[in-house]
Here is the input.
Amino acid sequence: MDSSSEGAAGVPVDGSAAVPTPPARPVLEAPDIARVLTRIAHEIVERAKGADDVVLLGVPTRGVHLAQRLAAKLQEITGHPVPVGSLDITMYRDDLRMRPARALARTEIPGDGIEGRLVVLVDDVLFSGRTIRAALDALGDIGRPRAVQLAVLVDRGHRELPIRADYVGKNLPTSLRETVRVRLTEEDGRDGVLLGQRATAPTAEQ
Amino acid sequence: MKRHLISAADLSRDDAVLILDTAEEMGRVADRPIKKLPTLRGRTVVNLFFEDSTRTRISFEAAAKRLSADVINFSAKGSSVSKGESLKDTALTLEAMGADAVVIRHHDSGAPHRLATSGWIGGSVVNAGDGTHEHPTQALLDAFTLRRRLGDGPGTDLAGRRVTIVGDILHSRVARSNVHLLSTLGAEVTLVAPPTLVPVRTEQWPCEVSYDLDAQLAKSDAVMMLRVQRERMNAAYFPTEREYARRYGLNGQRMARMPEHSVVMHPGPMNRGMEITAEVADSPRCTAVEQVTNGVSIRMAVLYLLLSGAEPAVTDTSENPAAAPAAAPGPATRTEENA
Here is the structure.
C-alpha cells in the first residue's frame, strides 16, 4: 500500500506530513530516481541471470508505477518484455481492525501467472516490513513462485519483522519522528523523495 | 458506509460506487486457485432467515466463508421460533453468542430496522429482504451486473442509463431497492405494471410509472422482469395468468424490439411462461445466472466494508465509521489515500 506514508505498526503520518513543521527536504530528485531504477534493473538481470522468468509485482499505489518503470528498463536491457502486474495487500493487512474499512486497490496478475516464476515485489518505501509480510501472504494464495525477491526505492529502517530487501534504491537512516514521502509523476505530478518531520511527536510505543 | 445496510436509500452515490468497485476486486478472487481471503478471520456472521430463500442465503454464506468469517445459519423452521420465540429473544440469543453481523431475512417489513435500532444487538445488521420493503444487496448486484454488461468500468455510475422494471411492483422489495439505488447512481427508472400492482405513492418515488410495456422497450438499456408473487397475493390483481403474460410478459418478439446492447434481468426465481418465456430466459441477453455469480461478489464487498474496519465506538444506526475516526482505537488522523 502507501507505505511511504505509513508509520511503524500502522502509525498514521500522512495527514500530519501534509502540514510539515519544518519544510520537507528532498533526498532524491527525479534524475536520482531514474538512475537508481536503472541500477536495480541491472542488478535484477545480473542476479536472475537474464531475467527470463521474472515477474514484477508492484504494491499499490506507488509500487505499481515503480514496477512498470522497472519493467520498461528490464525490457531495454534484456530485449524481451517482462510481465508486470500489481498485488493489492489490503485484505491481508494485520491492522485492518484498527481503522475504518479501506477501499481496495487492483490486483492484476500477468496472464502466465506466477507459478514457478521469480517474483520481484516492488514497493516505494520499506519500513516496518508489515506490508511485505502481507504481500507474501497474498502471494501464497495466488500461486507458488520459484522464489520471491523484494525491490524498494527507499529503505528507511525500523523493521518490525525479519524482512529485508534484495534491491534497495537508497538506504535512508531515519528517526521515527521523520516521515518519508515518495512522489511519482504518474501519481503526484512529479518525481521526488522527501524527508520531513512529523508535526506531532509519535505517541508512545510505536 | 454506515454500520448497517437496511435500505438502498441509505446509500449515497459514493457509497454505492465504493461497494461496486470493491465487488469488482472481490470477483477476481473467484478466478484464483485459492478462493479465500483471510480478511474476516475470527468474525462471526449469522444468517437469520425467517423466510425461505435459496439464492440469497447461500450467496451470503459463500461470501462470508470466502472472507474466512465463521458462519452460523439460522432458519425459522426447526428453531425455537416455531415454539413462539420473539424476534427480540432470538436477537438476544445471537448477541449472547457474539455475532459480529446479522444477515436477516424476514417476512415482515421493518424487521431489520427494528433489529438495528432496538439496541438488542451490537453487531452490524444487513437486510437480506424484509417483507415487501427492501432488498438492498439485490439492488447492488443488479447495479453491478448492469455496470459490467453495459461496459462501464470501475469508478463509474449508471448516469443516463434507462432501466425498466416490469411486473409485480406492489409486492416487490427488489423493485423498491432498485428504484432507490439505480436513481442514486444516476439511472432513469421506469416502472411498468398493471395498475393494480403499482403501489400507492409511487409519484413520490424517484421514477416514472407506465402501464404500457411495449412503449418502453425500444428505449431501455435494461429490462428487469419481476416474479408475480402469488404467495403474497390475497386478492385478484389481474384477470388471468394468460392475460398477464400477454400484456406484461417478455417474449422473443418483445425482446427483439429492445436495443442491441440492452439486457434482460431477473432476480429469480423465474416463472417461465408467466413473466418471461423460456426463449428469453435462455438467451444470452438474460443475465439471471450472472446476477447470482455477482451476488457473491457484492455480498463479500458489503460484509468487508461493514466488518473489516475498526469497531465503531457508539452502537447507533447513524454511526458512520468513516466520518468518526475518533472511534478507532489507533491514532486515526491519517487521510485515507484510497478511500
Q: What stands out?
A: The longest helix of chain B spans residues 288-307.
